[in-house]
Amino acid sequence: MRDTINVKNPATGETVKEVSVTSSSHIKKAIEQGNEAFKTWSKVNAHQRSALLKEWSAKIKSETEYLAEVMTLESGKPLKESRGEVAYAASYIDWYAEEAKRVYGRTIPSHTESKRIIVTKEPVGLVAAITPWNFPAAMMTRKAAPALAVGCTFIVKPAEETPLTTMKLVSLAHEAGIPEDVVQCVNGYGEDIGPIFTDSPLVRKITFTGSTPVGKLLMKNSAATMKHVSMELGGHAPLIVAKDADIDFAVNQVLASKFRNAGQTCICANRVLVHEDIAKVFSEQLISRVAQLNVGNGLDESTDVGPVINAAGYEKIDSQIEDAVGKGARVLYGHQYDKDEEKGYYFVHPTVLENVGEEMDIMQEETFGPVIPLSTFRENDQAVEIANNTPFGLAAYFFTNDYRNGIYFQEHLKFGILGWNDGAPSAAHAPFGGMKESGIGREGGPEGIEPYVETKYLSIGGIQ
Ligand code: NAP
Fold first, then answer.
1. Ligand 1 geometric centre to CA of 232 (Å)
2. Does the active-site annotation cover 36?
3. Percent of all residues in the chain with a pLDDT value above 70, rounded to a whole number
């Protein structure tokens, strides 16, 4: 195991902080402590757990500026988006603080007078979470909040690029009165820590947000001890603009979906399919709006698009653009980089490609960058066929003011999250998650509680 993590600012390549890697013996100790703490935390009554969660959320909100700056420094996202993520992260805690009081069981009418049938819900036990760099606050709280709410204990391993935001969130939880062994953070590299989590029989659940290959590996490794798993994995979202759509509105929503976090979000529009009759007008309006976006250091309040996270992220984006252009796509706007490989920063300017076909990599894989590939369709079923032609099934969007088109898309798109005239569908009170290779389970809403509870059935006999 390496000893330290050098957390770098993606906008400058400079070191933000050196963070110590948690030794494997300390991680094993943390697992034992988390397991021990479960015995008491699971017995704390739901109203007390709710109050502690509310206190944690209040502390996070009062530290918004500090957390937002740390998040921007380590992830590169614009400060205004970091502030938004702090609020979004806290909203999960607020929501699950309420839901803690509503983890209901049920009684079932018996088939005989001498029996009673009762169903209760119990926390699964110690939960280990592994989170990605693109939303270092929200991806943690939407796992921690339901877990703690129902009485589970929790250990998180944040991404090596962005441990600082998560470490601060955990220390705020302790300041709020949540015991130290109930919520813990360990730092290090996924390939080292993943097996410690999955091998331990004390860890009863693995919850992961990240790439599909790592999710598959974690699921496989969780099988030996039959752990519960929740997987929030990669996406490849289609965005369909029907002939009757409000073009101006759709353009605004494409911008909001695509350029948030420099296109490094799992649900951002990755393939834009426009009805051929409106394609020209749509692309002209799109380009005029894209040209207004400011690219720069996220600490600058006027920045709309920050750097991409690292060299590997930049190389994937560049190779997808080169592949598309080599196969006949045209660059309508952008295809410009500001980078310094020695210093280690990479800015990709918003780019729009047209004449994009399914044979191109950009139509087959997640881009994770500020690139819009435009493609056209004639009939709705053709758009749906292209949209569904992917192993991923996280989010899809469609823009239409005709309810028949809308219902058709709603019924035929194979994705867990749909936005109908809505490019930003996420909310703490709604179930977020994917179909197919985009994952298993949901986060948010009442569905987000289910992965953290076991169902226990009691049959009482011998009643006179
Ligand atoms: P990643 O490489 O899978 O990393 C995510 C986390 O997994 C990091 O903490 C990483 O740790 C850890 N990890 C890496 N290799 C591991 C291994 N062998 N065993 C255990 N853990 C391991 O994904 P990423 O590139 O950082 O994140 C982007 C991906 O996340 C995209 O595919 C995106 O779509 C997806 N995502 C999905 C959602 C959703 O809700 N569905 C939300 C956000 C992002 P280290 O980096 O420290 O090694």
1. 9
2. no
3. 100
Same domain, 152 and 271: no
- Cα(159) to ligand 1 centroid in Å equals 7
Tell me if residue 266 is catalytic.
yes
CA distance 80 to 88: 12
* CATH classification at residue 308: 3.40.309.10
Mind listing the pLDDT tens digit for each residue in 39-79?
999 999 999 999 999 999 999 999 999 999 999 999 999 99
- pLDDT tens, residue by residue, 68-118: 999 999 999 999 999 999 999 999 999 999 999 999 999 999 999 999 999
**pLDDT (tens digit, 9 = 90+) per residue, 380-408?**
999 999 999 999 999 999 999 999 999 99
Coil, strand or helix at 42: coil
Task: Kindly state whether residue 431 falls inside one of the protein's structural domains.
Answer: no
Query: Per the residue annotation, which of 99, 266, 354, 437 is the catalytic one?
Result: 266
> Catalytic one among 81, 85, 232, 437?
232
Position of tokens 């693109």?
A: 134
Residues 6+ apart with CB under 8 A from 15: 6, 7, 8, 9
> Token digits for 239?
């965005």
Ligand 1 atom at minimum distance from 194 CA: 20
147-to-231, 329, 412 alpha-carbon distances in Å:
15, 46, 33
Q: Which residues line ligand 1 (CB under 6 A)?
A: 130-135, 139, 157, 159-160, 189-191, 194, 209-211, 214, 217-218, 232-235, 266, 366, 394, 434, 439
Task: Name the residue range of residue 404's domain.
Answer: 237-426
